[in-house]
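User: Hey, my collaborator sent me this sequence without any context and asked if I could get a structure. I don't really work with proteins. Can you help?
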Amino acid sequence: MPRRTGIVSLVLAGLLVGANPAFAVAPPPEQLPDGDRRPVIRSVELLPPAGHNALLEADLRIEADDNDGIERYEYRWDGAAPTAIEPMPVDNPVVSYEAILPDTRYGLQVRAVDVNGWESEWYPAWTGVTPSPPVIFVAGDSIASGYSRMWFTGDATCTDAAYSFGSTVRDAVALALPTAWAPRYANVAFPGAGVGAVLNGGSDSCSTTHASQVGAIAQTADPSTWNLVVMTAGINSTNWVDVVKDLTRDTAFSLKDSGDKQACEVAVTQRWDFDSRRSDITAGTAAIVDAIETRTNASVYWASYFAIDGSLLAPGWSPIGPECEDEMRYALGELHSAIRAGLDDEVTWVNLDAMHVPTQMWAGWPHPSVEGHREIGLAVAEAIIG
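Assistant: No problem. I've predicted the 3D structure and written it out in structure-token form, which is a compact way to encode the shape of the chain:
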């Protein structure tokens, strides 16, 4: 072959190689160790929010397998751009909506990672519109309803959602969540409601008739989002209000602390009809919780009552002074034990009985003042958001 022809052939061969770079530099197929393989996801189901879920979290049901065992799952939301990849434990896979927006269309992708670090393909787990922001319901009696009254001769405000501790719960929970997920708030409580009235409805001290609080919650709760019910009820299922009225009269005419203490002993042990109501309170509490859990997906927070000994009815005068502390703690303990006996393990008990909550004076005593409602609301919010 002439030298010129050989050079031309070499040049043409080089050009052909340059024209097919993919063929020339293709990587070898992935080689896993002998007997190993990548995990495979078979199915994923995104469940709606449930009562046991923390705010903005929901469960996944995942079927997957791997020959060496799956170490964890991972997920990402796919909207305008994928969110950061988040891990999930194998035994309790839970996703958080915190990084995305409510009422917005997204996709959810899930993958499995085995003990050797091999990852499955991303699995298209869900596509749809995200839930609306959570709803906080406040129910129960005059502590929850926002009852207030300034003078003995004036009218009372029986229900005031903005005055109630529920507004503080909403605001405090909102601060802990992304702005777009700030919760909605509804107050269905009314003064005078015992456990029976929470279930069946009744009339308040302003002569207004109310329907079942449980029914109102069930009708307006949104099953596609997180519902929270905060409850205070039980004291009005006894004659405690009348006992306290009589007790303030007795202490007003007593000139000694020992006389006040004796009056408190008589009030709690002889005038209060608690023993005959104990079983009804427990049964009613259980019926309320069962109805809420059966008819809604809500999580329930039951707030205790607070101590009223030492609180002021008028400037400088406490009708139930510190000398009655033992009797008041005993009464609270008995009532709270009856309520808690009706609660199941899914209900969160919010303990307020060690708090000295600021109260209204004059005709509004011993209901919480503005600051008192704030303190109660912050305690409840802490139980919700941890």
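In plain terms: DSSP finds eleven helices and 14 strands in the chain. You can pass these tokens on to your collaborator as they are.
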